[in-house]
Automatic annotation (TrEMBL):
Protein name as catalogued: Chromate transporter
TM region(s), chain numbering: 99-118, 130-150, 162-193, 213-232, 252-274, 280-300, 307-332, 344-365, 377-406
This protein's UniProt keywords: Cell membrane, Membrane, Transmembrane, Transmembrane helix
Location in or out of the cell: Cell membrane
Family: Belongs to the chromate ion transporter (CHR) (TC 2.A.51) family.
Membrane topology annotation: Multi-pass membrane protein
UniProt cross-references to InterPro entries, sorted A to Z: Chr_Tranpt_l_chain (IPR014047), Chromate_transpt (IPR003370)
């Protein structure tokens, strides 16, 4: 142990000092759990909720650091909003904070979908008025995020142009992988054309874990991806096959959210674990709960193998996110301080604003707003957030009640 700490003190492992951990895992768990109960609207809306809670309200990190986290997680496969939450927990309270953030944000949705595995039938909630209200409040949340991030991340002509071009590209090419291509293109444009300067007020980021831990995580990520299929084929135990299928789903999907659904269907339906009718019923239920859509895995695991299956599927689909975030962050803090990479990240951050703007229209606005009453409720929610500065969970409750009134 002494030898290990000595190596760390010479710079081989950075960020191990406990004094750099600012908060506690319990604090992170408490905040993340409230977000897990109130974050409706999908991954784009989740980023808006996170920004309001972690950046504006609690000041756990600054706007530029949060934007860089979002950009980094957009590059990584898996559920981007969950990865941002894990990263925030890691920066706030180390590895226990990362686990606490994931548990708090994920558990409410997991429990709800496991219950849905027993209780729901296909389409049962499609006409619920309160659900419509929750869809509408996502319009206000995303609009608030676009407004706030655009002012800080695309304030000038070059970055504003990148944001608008990214929005147009995201709308014209709504296919899997398009967002990754847009972000890569924006990074290259920033690398070549934006000023290569690093602002002096860049806030240092300490994860509590060093590069050795990061390299181990990268090794585990690729090792499991390569050897789990072989182990499943050799052993034949259904739980190993289940873990393999959901681990691959969490490892190979860029964009997260709804993009994972076709891959999950190809994993569970041909294997006979879940039939198409049960799959679609669970998909409908997943739209009614807060938190990450990747928790749909809990429903599928419950249908396939009971409580054990729900636990295995949930752990397997989110494990790649932990490995990738922990593997990337220790290098990310160094990379983002280099002038060339700063210029690239400036382009990426502007593109993220554009992607958010495109998502505000489709799917957030197009799926939520069907009438002047719907748009009026969205304006009320937006006003409560922007003008009256109400916390998101209050606005969620008001919007749910408003949706129920509209639907009656």
């Amino acid at each position: 142990m002494k030898r290990f700490l000595s190596t760390a003190s010479r710079g081989g492992i950075k960020g191990l000092e406990n004094k750099r951990v600012q908060g506690s895992a319990w604090e992170v768990l408490r905040v993340a759990t409230r977000l897990g109960f109130t974050s409706f609207g999908g991954p784009i809306a989740h980023l808006g909720y996170f920004r309001e809670e972690y950046v504006n309200r609690r000041k756990w990190l600054d706007e530029k650091t949060y934007a860089d986290l979002v950009a980094l997680c957009q590059f990584l496969p898996g559920p981007a909003s969950s990865q941002v939450g894990i990263a925030v927990g890691l920066l706030r309270a180390g590895l226990p904070g990362a686990v606490a953030s994931w548990i708090g944000f994920t558990l409410p949705s997991v429990l709800a979908l496991v219950w849905f595995a027993f209780a729901l039938r296909e389409g049962q909630l499609e006409t619920a008025g309160w659900l419509k209200g929750l869809m509408i409040v996502a319009v206000a949340v995303v609009a608030q995020a676009v407004w706030g991030m655009a002012k800080s991340l695309a304030p000038d002509r070059p970055r504003g142009t990148i944001a608008l071009l990214a929005a147009i590209a995201a709308l014209l090419f709504p296919v899997a992988g398009a967002q990754v291509g847009i972000i890569v293109a924006a990074g290259l444009i920033g690398w070549w054309f934006l000023p290569r300067t690093v602002p002096p007020n860049r806030v240092p980021v300490h994860t509590g874990l060093g590069r050795r831990a990061a390299i181990i995580c990268w090794g585990l990520f690729f090792g499991l991806l390569l050897f789990l299929p072989l182990l499943a084929q050799w052993n034949g135990h259904p739980w190993i096959a289940l873990f393999d299928g959901f681990y691959r789903a969490g490892s190979l999907v860029f964009g997260g959210g709804h993009v994972v659904l076709p891959l999950l269907q190809s994993v569970v339906v041909p294997a006979g674990w879940v039939d198409n009718e049960a799959f679609l019923a669970g998909y409908g239920a997943a739209q009614a709960v807060p938190g990450p859509l990747f928790t749909f895995a809990a429903y599928l695991g419950m249908v396939a193998e009971g409580w054990g299956g729900a636990l295995i599927a949930t752990l397997a689909i989110f494990l790649p996110s932990f490995l990738l975030v922990i593997g990337a962050l220790p290098f990310w803090d160094v990379i983002r301080r280099r002038p060339a990479f700063h210029a690239a990240f400036a382009g990426v951050n502007a593109a993220v604003v554009g992607i958010l703007l495109a998502a505000l229209f489709d799917p957030v606005f197009t799926k939520a707003i069907d009438s002047p009453l719907d748009f009026s409720l969205a304006l009320i929610a937006f006003g409560l957030l922007m003008v009256w500065k109400q916390p998101p969970w209050v606005v969620v409750l008001i919007a749910a009640a408003g949706g129920w009134v509209i639907g009656t």
